[in-house]
Amino acid sequence: MKLPIVAYGDPILRKKTEEIDEDYPNLQQLIADMFETMYAANGVGLAAPQIGLAIRLFVIDASPFSDDDEDGPGDASVKDFKKVIINPIIVEESGEKWAFNEGCLSIPDINEEVLRKPNIVLNYLDENFEEHEVELSGLAARVVQHEYDHIEGKLFIDKISVLKKAMIKGKLDAIAKGRVKVDYKMKFPQASKRKV
C-alpha cells in the first residue's frame, strides 16, 4: 500500500526516533509498504519519520545511482544495494568530505550540494533482526547517511550554508503549506491543523 509522505514542516521530521524490536506490530507489512511508497515516488531511500512514524527504520534501494557511482570516491557498487535497516548506528565516518547534489521526498523540487564524508562503518539489524556491521563508501554511504539523518531528526538542508537556506526559504514555506505539485501522495502539516 502506498503511504503518504510527510512534507517539510511536520514536527515528526525533527524528532529523534525510538528503537524497535521483533514484536513491532505488522513490521513486515510496514517494510513492504515503505518500499512500495518509495518506488512510487521514484526515491532511493525512505525513513520511517517520512511516513509519520518515529522509529529507527529505513529502506534503501540505491540501484538508480548505479550509473553515477564513479562520480563519488570509493569503489562501492550501488547496483544491488537494497536494504532494510533497523536500529542503525553509524560507528565511524572517515575520509575527506565530498559534495553531491541531494534531494528528499519530503522536500520536493529542492536539490542542493551537500558535503559528507565518503566512508562509513554501519551497524544495523535487517528485517529478520540479524545484526550486520558493514563498511560502505561513495554513494552507498551517502544514501545511508541521508536516511540516518532522518531518524536523528535532521534534514539535508541542515547541512547547507545559511545563505543557500535563505535563498530557498520561500520554497520551503510553500512546501509546508502544501503549495507544491508532486506525482505522489503527501501529507502536509497545514492540512492536519485544519482538521480541528
From TrEMBL:
<comment type="function">
    <text>Removes the formyl group from the N-terminal Met of newly synthesized proteins. Requires at least a dipeptide for an efficient rate of reaction. N-terminal L-methionine is a prerequisite for activity but the enzyme has broad specificity at other positions.</text>
</comment>
<feature type="active site">
    <location>
        <position position="147"/>
    </location>
</feature>
<keyword id="KW-0408">Iron</keyword>
<keyword id="KW-0648">Protein biosynthesis</keyword>
<dbReference type="InterPro" id="IPR036821">
    <property type="entry name" value="Peptide_deformylase_sf"/>
</dbReference>
<feature type="binding site">
    <location>
        <position position="150"/>
    </location>
    <ligand>
        <name>Fe cation</name>
    </ligand>
</feature>
<dbReference type="GO" id="GO:0006412">
    <property type="term" value="P:translation"/>
</dbReference>
<dbReference type="GO" id="GO:0042586">
    <property type="term" value="F:peptide deformylase activity"/>
</dbReference>
<protein>
    <recommendedName>
        <fullName>Peptide deformylase</fullName>
        <ecNumber>3.5.1.88</ecNumber>
    </recommendedName>
</protein>
<dbReference type="InterPro" id="IPR023635">
    <property type="entry name" value="Peptide_deformylase"/>
</dbReference>
<keyword id="KW-0479">Metal-binding</keyword>
<comment type="similarity">
    <text>Belongs to the polypeptide deformylase family.</text>
</comment>
<feature type="binding site">
    <location>
        <position position="146"/>
    </location>
    <ligand>
        <name>Fe cation</name>
    </ligand>
</feature>
<keyword id="KW-0378">Hydrolase</keyword>
<feature type="binding site">
    <location>
        <position position="104"/>
    </location>
    <ligand>
        <name>Fe cation</name>
    </ligand>
</feature>
<dbReference type="Pfam" id="PF01327">
    <property type="entry name" value="Pep_deformylase"/>
</dbReference>
<dbReference type="GO" id="GO:0046872">
    <property type="term" value="F:metal ion binding"/>
</dbReference>
